[in-house]
Specification:
Layout: H1 2-20, E1 28-32, E2 35-39, H2 41-97, H3 100-109, H4 117-130, H5 134-145, H6 151-164, H7 168-178, H8 186-199, H9 202-214, H10 220-239, H11 244-253, H12 256-259, H13 262-274, H14 278-291, H15 295-300, H16 309-322, H17 327-339, H18 343-356, H19 360-372, H20 376-389
Antiparallel strand pairs: 1-2
Organism: Vibrio porteresiae DSM 19223
TPR repeats: 327-360
Transmembrane segments: 41-62
Length: 391
């Protein structure tokens, strides 16, 4: 457009000058080396305008020729890309259908012409993995890693495949290499959770759980359950040192919220008993029963050595005197009396506990106490009651 305007300006100027100086053509002499060229000014202007016109026409023709060539090449390129996309889509469907050989064949056939070859190679790796061909899988992953911006997608795929094969340490090493650059990636966090659980890496799991909750990889209930499991694992690991001081020191270092979980309170008591630190276990349970009593703690009392039974009975009798509707205290007393072969006392406390809530184990122990007193029919009826509660 600008060139056309320029041409019209030149033509207009020529017409103006020609009209203004008609009959006064002037004279132009051009000398180059030993050659001279003579012409009027009018002739020079006409030649100049003609030359510009020729240049514009040639430029137009060259552009048209180049554009036609480019469009032809582009048409073939687009055609190949569209075909590649079609084969890739078909390959994904075949992968979902379980036809892994066809899936691999389709996505690889035109992968080089795809606008995202990375996608093709990753799908081919998935297909090879599902078909059980680890060599091809690794080959396709290597090809994928050569593409631009491929690190995260390739390494996450590689780690997920190792997790599937229970190659926990290889998967962990891969994910740890990604973690500094992608600390909040939800897939990475989820894979780390699986690995830590499998390897019983409890402390890293504890540190990971808040992120999993924050980025919606866990519900609040799942986070609570995994937190309990992880701290139970850490308590068991610490108990391996066979020192009650180490266990109690670790307990003190735990968050206040965790120390209020009845399952973890009971877990510490169990670990103390497991390493034969019965005095420490007794003192801990007694203290916790006063502060935060729970069914888990009451259930542990009969597991303490007989040396503590007299003290435990006295403590429990005070509790049931003050709180007659404490079913767990009655149940614990019944178990202690059963161990001491005080059948009638055991029967009384089991009946008190069962009048407050149902329990298969208490029904079974009550049947045992009744049977020891030769109350066969009553023991049979209680046994049937216990069986009726089973799922």
């Amino acid at each position: 457009m600008i060139k056309a305007i320029l041409l019209f300006i030149i033509l207009g100027a020529g017409l103006f000058v020609g009209t203004e100086y008609s009959g006064q053509q002037g004279y132009v002499l051009i000398s180059i080396a030993n050659k001279t060229l003579e012409m009027s000014v009018t002739t020079l202007v006409i030649m100049f305008i003609a030359l510009l016109a020729v240049i514009f026409v040639l430029e137009y023709l060259v552009k048209k020729t180049l554009s036609a060539s480019f469009n032809t090449l582009n048409w073939f390129s687009v055609r190949k890309m569209r075909r590649s996309r079609r084969f890739t889509n078909e390959g994904i469907i075949k992968l979902l259908e379980g036809d892994f050989k066809q899936a691999e064949k389709k996505v690889i056939r035109w992968a080089k012409h795809h606008d995202k070859p990375l996608l093709c190679y990753l799908i081919a790796a998935e297909a090879a993995e599902s078909a059980g061909d680890s060599d091809k899988r690794d080959h396709y992953l290597n090809l994928a890693s050569e593409q631009d911006d491929a690190t995260l997608a390739v390494e996450l795929t590689r780690a997920r495949m190792w997790v599937k094969e229970n190659e926990w340490k290889k998967a962990l090493a891969t994910l740890q290499s990604l973690q500094p650059s992608y600390p909040n990636n939800p897939i990475l966090l989820s894979l780390l959770k699986q690995i830590y659980l499998a390897l019983e890496e409890w402390q890293p799991l504890i540190e990971l759980l808040p992120k999993l909750l924050k980025y919606s990889q866990l519900s609040a209930l799942e986070e609570q359950q995994l937190t309990i499991k992880a701290y139970q694992g850490m308590l068991a690991h610490t108990a391996g040192r066979q020192r009650s001081d180490d266990l109690l020191e670790y307990w003190d270092s735990m968050p206040r919220k965790a120390k209020k979980e009845p399952a973890l309170v009971a877990s510490l008591a169990q670990q103390l008993m497991a390493i034969h630190q019965d005095a420490a276990a007794y003192n801990f349970i007694s203290k916790q029963l006063k502060a935060t009593p729970s069914s888990e703690l009451y259930a542990l009392l009969p597991e303490l050595p007989s040396d503590y039974h007299a003290s435990l009975q006295a403590m429990l009798l005070k509790i049931v005197d003050k709180s007659p509707n404490n079913a767990e205290a009655h149940s614990s007393l019944g178990r202690l009396y059963l161990q001491q072969q005080h059948w009638s006392k055991a029967q009384h406390h089991f009946e008190q506990a069962l009048s407050l809530r149902s329990s298969v184990s208490d029904y079974a122990l009550l049947a045992q106490a009744l049977d020891k007193q030769n109350m066969t029919q009553a023991a049979h009826d209680v046994t049937q009651k216990a069986l009726s509660l089973l799922p």
